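ARCHIVE CARD
Drawer: 12
Card no.: 0347
Subject: one protein chain, sequence and derived structure
Cross-reference: see card 0346
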Amino acid sequence: MIIDFDSNGWMALLGEALRCSVPESARRSLPSARVTYYEEAPDALIDDASLS
């Protein structure tokens, strides 16, 4: 899967790409995370309660 981080829909695509790598709760919360830049996406995953 190719994710275009310059598009507005990259968060949902990233969540789909991570389906097998992270818990379901993190995948559900990632699209609504307040992330402006893709570099912040790992922080959104770590902030998920199931990963802390």
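Annotation on reverse: The chain has three helices and no strands. The longest helix spans residues 10-17.
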